[in-house]
Amino acid sequence: MTRVFSNRSFPATRLRRMRKNAFSRLLVQESLLTINDLILPVFICDESNMACAILGMPGVHRYSLDKLMFYMEKVVHSGILAVELFPNIDDNTKDALASQALRDDGVVCRAVKLIKSNFPELGVMTDVALDPYTSNGQDGIVDSDGYVVNDITNDILAKQALNHVAAGADMVSPSDMMDGRVGCIRSAFEDNGFCDAIIVAHSAKYASSLYSPFRRAVGSLGNLGPSTKETYQIDPSNISEALNEASLDIAEGADAVLVKPGMPYLDVLYAIKNTLNVPTFVYNVSGEYAMVKAASMSGAIDEKSVVLEILLSFKRAGADVIISYHALEAAKWLTAG
Ligand code: PBG
């Protein structure tokens, strides 16, 4: 016998009534994905005439600044509102102190200036972390035991962020997971006349195995070797800790918080959005992109419908903004008639 759990029982309640026709399905849709939800991550390098493919990420390239402008034209034309920049610098210029991160004429600052002078309306976000610049691939400065030293790293991050906004970046996104870095960056901004610069804090950034294609793209994978980032990124088994991080980051002056990776952490996204009620970003990371691409290229899944379903699931879970390597293709699908 069928057990009835509700007093509105079958046949009085038939949920399929609303599902029967397209009009009623659309009328009761609870979440909506639009092009205005998307940010495209972009890899850049300090070379010329270069568009280098990234292993495991078909369709994604690392661009030299001359090529970048053509790509940005495509992005702007697609209707995407903002990009996030990630640099790859010459391995020989990396050192233990991440010296290149402090240059105001480094590839990120030059890219920001170029983009803002050619496409002033396009939002530009930069990554604040030292891993593309350290010879050991860590996000901060390490001591003799290989431990990332928090407060020294914060000083450098604040200077790096300041250079980015001075170059014209609209938003900075600290992805380093040092304690107190948002406060340091916010003070540096206030003290230097950048009170409107947006900080999107990577608050719930997990020590995930899904970052490898990205690390290859920025050139930190080999340098990191067998080392992990477990002494600063969050343990994948924790959720209260992520909520604690997010509320601290807001208290320190973040304008938005970010959850990363995306797909395996929808519960975290949901909890943060519903607890803090602040703009919440999700980062659909490189390993997630690689998995979807591999499955679609093998013919196992239909790429367009799977990607749109994944992006929609972020909206349903509470994301206001989705950073995704699928953004450019998704923009095309979302705006096509
Ligand atoms: C590092 C950083 C990482 C990503 C963005 N910023 C990797 C890491 O923490 O090692 C990963 C993004 C992706 O995988 O797409 N500051």
Can you tell me about this structure?
The chain is of the alpha/beta class. Helices cover 40% and strands 16% of the residues. The protein contains 13 helices and ten strands. An eight-stranded parallel beta barrel has the order 1-4-5-6-7-8-9-10, surrounded by nine helices. A hairpin with a 7-residue loop joins strand 2 and strand 3 (61-64). Helix 4 runs parallel beside helix 5 and helix 9 crosses helix 10. The longest helix is centred in the middle third of the chain and has 18 residues, at 150-167. It is globular. It starts with 15 loop residues before the first helix and ends with a helix. Residues 127, 129, 131, 139, 175-176, 211, 214-215, 229, 285-286 line the site of ligand PBG.
Going across the major beta sheet, what is the strand order?
1-4-5-6-7-8-9-10
Bound chemical compounds = ligand PBG
- Give the count of helical stretches: 13
Topology as H/E string? HHEEEHEHEHEHEHHHEHEHHEH
Beta content: 15-25%
Q: pLDDT under 50 segments (min length 5)? A: none
Overall shape: globular
Largest sheet: 8 strands, parallel, barrel
Give the helix/strand class: alpha/beta
Tell me the quaternary state.
Answer: single chain
In short, what is this structure?
It is built from 13 helices and ten strands. The protein is an alpha/beta fold.
Q: How are the elements arranged and paired?
A:
Layout: H1 16-19, H2 22-27, E1 38-45, E2 51-53, E3 61-64, H3 65-78, E4 82-88, H4 107-118, E5 123-128, H5 150-167, E6 171-174, H6 181-191, E7 198-205, H7 212-218, H8 221-224, H9 240-251, E8 256-260, H10 266-276, E9 280-284, H11 286-297, H12 303-317, E10 321-324, H13 327-335
Parallel strand pairs: 1-3, 1-4, 1-10, 4-5, 5-6, 6-7, 7-8, 8-9, 9-10
Antiparallel strand pairs: 2-3
Helix pairs in contact: 3-4, 4-5, 5-6, 9-10, 10-12
The structure holds ligand PBG.
